[in-house]
Amino acid sequence: MNNVLKLNSISSLAIKTLGTNYTVTDDCSNPQAVLVRSAVMQDWDVPSSLLCVARAGAGVNNIPFEDYATKGIIVFNTPGANANAVKELVVASLIMASRNLIAGAKWAQRLVGDDVKKQVEKGKSQFAGTEISGKTIGILGLGAIGRKVATAADALGMKVVGYDPFVCEAAKALDFVTIYDTMEEVFATSDYITIHIPYSKATHHFINADSIAKMKDGVIIINAARGELVSTDSIKSGIEEKKVRCYVTDFPDADCLNYDGIIALPHLGASSAEAEENCAEMAAQEIKLFVEEGTIKNSVNMPNITVAKNKAHRASVIFSGEIAINVTAEVTNKAGISYAIIESDSVIDADALEKTAGVIKARNIF
Ligand code: MLT
Fold this sequence. Notes:
- The longest helix has 21 residues, at 273-293.
- The strands form 3 sheets. Strands 8-7-6-9-10-11-12 form a 7-stranded parallel sheet, with helices on both faces. A 5-stranded parallel sheet has the order 2-1-3-4-5. It has a 4-stranded antiparallel sheet with strand order 14-15-13-16.
- Helix 2 (65-70) links the parallel strand 4 (52-55) and strand 5 (74-76).
- 42% of the residues are buried.
- It has helices spanning 13-18, 65-70, 83-98, 101-109, 116-123, 144-155, 169-172, 183-189, 209-213, 232-240, 273-293, 350-354, and strands at 2-6, 22-25, 33-36, 52-55, 74-76, 136-140, 159-163, 177-179, 192-195, 219-223, 244-249, 262-264, 313-320, 328-334, 337-344, 359-364.
- By secondary structure, it is of the alpha/beta class.
- The protein has 12 helices and 16 strands.
- Helices cover 30% and strands 22% of the residues.
- The mean pLDDT is 96.
- It has 3 domains: 1-81 and 273-301, Rossmann fold (3-Layer(aba) Sandwich), CATH 3.40.50.720; 83-264, Rossmann fold; 307-366.
- Helix 3 crosses helix 6.
- The structure holds D-malate (MLT).
- D-malate is lined by residues 37-38, 57-59, 82, 267, 269-270.
């Protein structure tokens, strides 16, 4: 029996997908796997039993995944599983911001008296907006979410430009997207900018006073990625100077609240029933494949590896540097840490392997 520790509430589809060989609880001192959504794991005490962590979502800034690789722990995410939900939130944000829907709705809710209809007609002009059709949207990050946003924006009659430092073939295949070589070109040409890049030290506050200065006057900025990508102070200055027309953030801190020109949403991007199920199912499958076969799929700290079953016995070993393995082995590695699936006709002594210099973790799989 394998123990799975749930650090957040996650769709019960995860338990169903894992099946009867797994016990899933939210209190366990010796888990083989962790299922997590947004719980911050930076200060979490890692138990020695832990083999893998699966994040039900795309962003992994709540998990110290590089450090976990050095501890022999594989970290997975669920790319694309919630992309449609986030895309829909971005489409809603484009329209909410352009048509002043939040401010207008708040105003209408406060109307009193028998002549509400009259007040509505008299007061509505203060919320008149603009249309998105014909405008240019700049998409920063053309991964699973960015590409879906691009397709939706195109269908809504927008011109689509984008930038991605690691642009993939699937993005290049979207012939209606102008992909620029620099972010600056996106800033200079876009009426709307939507952010779909991961948060890391390198991307901290990359939307700041300098980048905002390069944008078009009256730009609308949408952040459904992570709060720390954007400097709220710079956004507020941009709003005061009328450079920024609206900032929609799905990751508000206190500074974003009750501020004209900022629409603060409570991290709803991936909060749809469908996305929660997709993420839970994909995360559970990743755990199962890893625990039962040693397969790695969608890891953020180790490349993919799948090995067809050729022999009766299989073990996996995670190591740094070089070790001598004198049985059939397939190896993958990242940032100085290697992962090997080894097979043999006879039983493999994983305990002895674990004592080899350089080995971080070894286990028998079957
Ligand atoms: C993500 O990173 O995909 C989302 O933040 C997931 C979530 O809402 O938990």
